[in-house]
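Input set for joint prediction.
Command: fold jointly, output tokens.
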Amino acid sequence: MNRAGREVRVRRYPAGAVTPDDFEIVEVPVADPHPGQVLVRNTWTSVDPGLRLRLRPDAPAGYFPAFPLGQAMDGIMAVGEVVESRAEGFVPGDVVSHAQGWRDYAVVDPGATQLGGIGTLSRLDIGDAEPQWYLGALGGMGLTAYAGLHVIDALDGGETVWVSAAAGAVGSLAAQIAKLRGNRVIASAGTDEKVDWLREALGVEAFNYRRGDLSSSLRELAPGGIDAYFDSVGGDHLEAALDHLTGHGRVAMCGSISDYESEPRGPRNLFLAVSRNLMLRGFRASSNLHLMAEMREQLSAWLGSGELVHRETVFADLEQAPHALAEMISGRTTGKTLVSIC
Amino acid sequence: MNRAGREVRVRRYPAGAVTPDDFEIVEVPVADPHPGQVLVRNTWTSVDPGLRLRLRPDAPAGYFPAFPLGQAMDGIMAVGEVVESRAEGFVPGDVVSHAQGWRDYAVVDPGATQLGGIGTLSRLDIGDAEPQWYLGALGGMGLTAYAGLHVIDALDGGETVWVSAAAGAVGSLAAQIAKLRGNRVIASAGTDEKVDWLREALGVEAFNYRRGDLSSSLRELAPGGIDAYFDSVGGDHLEAALDHLTGHGRVAMCGSISDYESEPRGPRNLFLAVSRNLMLRGFRASSNLHLMAEMREQLSAWLGSGELVHRETVFADLEQAPHALAEMISGRTTGKTLVSIC
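tokens >
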């Protein structure tokens, strides 16, 4: 069948802040699926901070590769509906997730491992959930939050946990999971509106890191120090965490968004890790796929009971995807940033 | 009894490199022990990189406090012989370790916790060992090496482990323990002579980090990357380790001597911890006292069999202590740096 669809391409790597001009939306013919392949009409696609790392020629070693210029951007999560299937196990109408987002239609090979496994084509057993939750709480975001708390042993409760970027997709889940598991949670974000939301909707203590310095804010809310820190920010946030962690404190590092558009600098007070027996642990959600089932079971239950709040900032239509990314990186979105595809 | 003895005092905090002029040797009357106290004649005292951190007004948070100016320097390991005892459990002639080194005589209170427990007065069951080994392989140095490998799970063998400052007191033990436990060890040091010693006496692969750049040297010796890194250096060494660690690699951090006389800077490539699931773990020997018995048992056996080499650089007489420290920090000593006290 002769179908046409749009895809987003990178025109140039942004020099500093991302702008929509760095991208172009191109109409392309949609290939027919070969035997063994599935054609998916995307309905939602994900907008993640990590994409920024792939918008430069020197994507960090060990991370996903840079997006090539002038081509469809492979390796971005999407959910959609199977339109045509030539692969066993998939039929038209199936709701699926995969890693060929930022386009209207995707021809997907079920056998190909995508995004370390998180993005490999899979049929979603939606139940009472909304499909796009599988790009957020029930997908990579939920797994990142859950796995981060898991790898630093912060799921047993009874501790003081600081979560930065706590109004973001991962942070808002990490803050809630940490709280629902019995920890005292200190959350930080960059606008008063976000802080209000954290306090009122999530019920955690929160501060605006742009008002006053981080250390004073932490000292005020946690005069006895923090036991664990969930880091998506790096930079000054990580330094402040090291300053305030108590003995044997732990840091879960899932990203360092403060560095993504500038030269990274490491924490100058890393010696505190020695003097206070601290552990810093970087992790990837895709390296913790074994936790996906238990995460989904736990978070589905909390979503069902209303204990877990899943907030979304939705941009309508694919052509908004570049704008959505720019807005998210500059801190103007709350919760999971998504693009709905008409 | 009226005894006189010498003690070393800090005259001023060194601006850059330590020099003997920053200290003075003062003759003082030796106090008689009160009931419950023990008088010790020190025979050996320790010279440790960490002392440098206490020779500045702003000793790092969580670390041992700065040495006050113009007073005896409390909290430096020594071994000696009990001369007079007014405390239960100690009699004249006992060989003991404690934390009042850098002086001829020490009046020690057995009940006082010193250096987080490592320096608390204890009678040594010397056996075939030399007393000064309790300042090295069988003391805090051995515990630091052993505990560091323990906290990053590098005692089970079968991995490639990089040990920096490997001709130093801790590094030379960490390199040997890692090797004797079945790992492949890459050792680095700052002179050709040290590198020769590492290769010939310790039987490990080694390179001089001052010849060529760290990354090239590591790539050459460990083209497949390293699994674990034992860090006493920080700075460019830690950055090189992050570059070369394989997925789920670990770093044991016991110090960062490259920072002690300058402004510390953190590793600029710390994002690799995220992209490669790395763990960085700071630790203190004094937080791992529960490992002391097994460490001593293991290392004593290896010392007895000759499998473990315990090299010392000895400076004769207390008045050499400041010079010994300056020599050690500038990299001109090998193995454990000690001062014998006449």
